[in-house]
Amino acid sequence: MPLATIDIAFRAATVALLLVLAVSLYRGFGTVLAGRLAAAFAVGSAAHAVTSSIGTASPASGAFAPVIALATGNVVVFWLFARALFGDEFRLRWWHGLIWIAVVVLSLANCLFIAPAAMTGSKGTTFVGEGAVAIFSTMRILFVAINVIALGFIALAVAQTIASWSADLVEGRRRVRVFIVSAAALYGGLNAVLQIVLSGHGASELANTLNSAALAAVVGSIAIAMMRVDGADLFPVAPESKVDATETAAAESSAADQKLIDALMRLMSDERIYRHDNITIGTLATRLAIPEYRLRRLINQRLGYRNFNVFLNEHRIAEAKAALADPSQAEVPVITIAMDAGFQSLGPFNRAFKAITGVTPTEYRRLKASAA
Length: 372
Description:
By secondary structure, the chain is an all-alpha fold.
C-alpha cells in the first residue's frame, strides 16, 4: 500500500475521532470553560491533522489557508485548556483572545502572502536575484518563528500542569492530567522541532506518514484515558456547590472522617494555619498525622473543594473581609491586611478577593463603611 494512502487513512481516522470527541465534550460539558476549551482544542487538532506536513510544502490555496491558521492558533487554545483544566479559578480574559488572533493572523499572512511571494520569486517569474533570496529567507524565518511560538505555548502548558499539580485535590484528574498534557505536548513539541530542523526541505512522504501515525496514536490514547475518568472530575458541572456538598458530606461521613474534619477546621479557624508561608497540603497532613492522599480525598469529597489553594484562599478572604469591615482598621493598608491573612503579594489577593466577593478589597471596605 502506498505511503500516501496510509497517510490519508491515519489522517481521516484522527479527524473523525477528534470531531466526535469535540461534539461529545461540547454537548456534555459545554457549560464549563474547560469543557468548551477542550472541544475547541479538539477542533483545532482536527485542523492540524488535515494540514500537518513535515518540511516545507507548496503554498496553501486560499481556501486551505484558514484551516492552517486555525491549526497554528491551536497551540494558544492548548495553553488555555491546560490552565482551565487544572485551575478551577481560571477565567478567560479579553487579551487571551488577542493572543489567539495574533497567532492566527501571523499564520494566515504567511500562507496567503509571504509564502506564495517567496515561491514565485524563487522560480524567477516575479522576483530575481537578491529580491527572491530575501523573500525566501523571510518565509523561512517566519516559518521557524511560528514553530518557536508553538514550542513556547507548549512549554507554558506544561509549566501550568507542573505548578498546579500539588494543589489538585481531584484524584481522577490527578491520574490523567500528566498523561493528557504530556502526550499532547510531546507530540506538539517534536512536531515543532522537526519543522524547524527540516525547514527549507521538501515534504517527505515517510516523515508525513510517521507523523500522522504518531498523531493518531496520541489522540487515541488521550481519548481512552478520558473515557476511563469520570467526566465530572475533569469538567465540574456545578463548581459553585461547595456549601451543599459540605452539608451533605458531613451528614454522611464516618465518625473518623468527621473527627479529622473537625481537627482540620480547628487548624484553620483557631491556629489560622493558612497564614503560614508556603503552607502545603503535606504540611496539613503531617499536622493531622494522616497520609497526604487521605487529606486530599477528605477536602475534596467531604468539603467539596477541587483545589487546595481555593480552600486556603476562602479562609484567607474571610479573615480579610472581617478586617476590611472593621472600623478600627479603617486606616490599615489593604496590602497589610492581605499579607496578614497569608497572601504573599497584592495582585493574587485582589484577584482572589474579587473572584469570591465580586468587588475589589477597596470597594468592599467602602461599601461596609457606607453601610455602617
